[in-house]
Amino acid sequence: MSGHSKWATIKHKKGAADARRGKLFAKLIRQVEVAARQGGGDPDSNPTLRTMYQKARDASVPLDTIDRAVKRGTGELEGVSYEQITYEGYAPHGVAVLIEVLTDNRNRTGSEIRTAFSRGGGSMAEPGAVAWQFERKGSVLVDRAADEDDLTLAAIDAGADDIADDGAAWRITTPPGDLPSVRASLEEAGFAVESSDLIMAATNLVPLASAGDARAVLSLVDALEDNDDVQAVHANFDIPDDVFAELDAG
Predict the structure, then answer these.
(1) Architecture label for domain 3-74
(2) What is the chain's pLDDT, residue by residue, as a tens digit (250 residues)?
(3) 198: nearest Cα among 177, 184, 169, 182
(4) Residue 172 contacts residue 218 (beta carbons within 8 Å)
(5) What is the Cα–Cα distance from 160 to 157, expressed in whole angstroms?
(6) Closest residue by Cα to residue 97 from 71, 65, 134, 63
């Protein structure tokens, strides 16, 4: 199980998700807009838009807000032009970090990302230095109440790659292009899907040996995620169960 995923579960339990809901909405709307600009406004012919549209709906973004974002992306409404950038770097203890950004000001965002790394005890890396440690995957979260055996059979039949216990939910990993069809198959089979997304999955994980090590890495990840232009932060750390329990208790 990914330590990063477990930390997201902690934040959700402590109510941080609600406190940051407005910022989350803004990021999801930006993702929808960019997907529509790049591939058109029809979700049936634009798989990326279909994924981002569903991601926004999972987070309870209002339909009219999503529709306006699509129209800005297709040019029907005036909007801002965003640039997609991926930054790479290292957090403390050799943890690889990949940051996906949508920005209307490359210089501002680059400076802010560099500052976050510096203050968090990490360092920026050259393009390609970190990216090879990740691969694009689809991810579907299913309610933890689902029977593992039944879910595993349904996921395999749907074309999924893997199923893992993610703490508060089951995480189904899929080939990126199969994400919509796997989600649809699981829903048709009666499973309660909580969310789905495209992620960059780490191919190798770096275990964090102590709560202090974990806090140092998580502090940097949180600082990066708090940036308005940052859409996703991917990192290859793992928090062992004993360390995770100490963090959770604290």
Answers:
(1) Orthogonal Bundle (1.10)
(2) 344 555 555 554 444 454 467 788 899 999 999 999 999 999 989 999 999 999 999 888 999 999 999 999 999 988 888 999 999 999 999 999 999 999 999 999 999 999 999 999 999 999 999 999 999 999 999 999 999 999 999 999 999 999 988 877 899 999 999 999 999 999 999 999 998 999 999 999 999 999 999 999 999 999 999 999 999 999 999 888 888 888 877 6
(3) 177
(4) no
(5) 8
(6) 134
CB-based contact 122:114 (threshold 8 Å): no
C-alpha 160/C-alpha 164 separation (Å) is 11
DSSP letter at 227? S
Specify the amino acid at residue 59. Answer: A
Residue-wise DSSP of 189-213: TT--EEEEEEEEEESS-EE--SHHH
pTM across the whole model:
0.84
Q: How far apart are CA 181 and CA 179, in angstroms?
A: 6
The first and second tokens of residue 83, run together, are 């640039």
Picking from 238, 220, 232, 237, the residue whose alpha carbon sits closest to that of residue 87 is: 232
Helices (H), ranges, the chain: 3-13, 16-19, 21-39, 47-58, 63-74, 106-119, 148-158, 179-188, 211-225, 241-249
CA distance 24 to 61: 9
Cα–Cα distances (Å) from 56 to 52, 59, 78, 167, in that order, read 6, 5, 21, 23
Instruction: Give domain limits for the chain.
Output: 3-74
Task: Please tell me the distance from the alpha carbon of residue 73 to that of residue 81, in angstroms, as a whole number.
Answer: 9
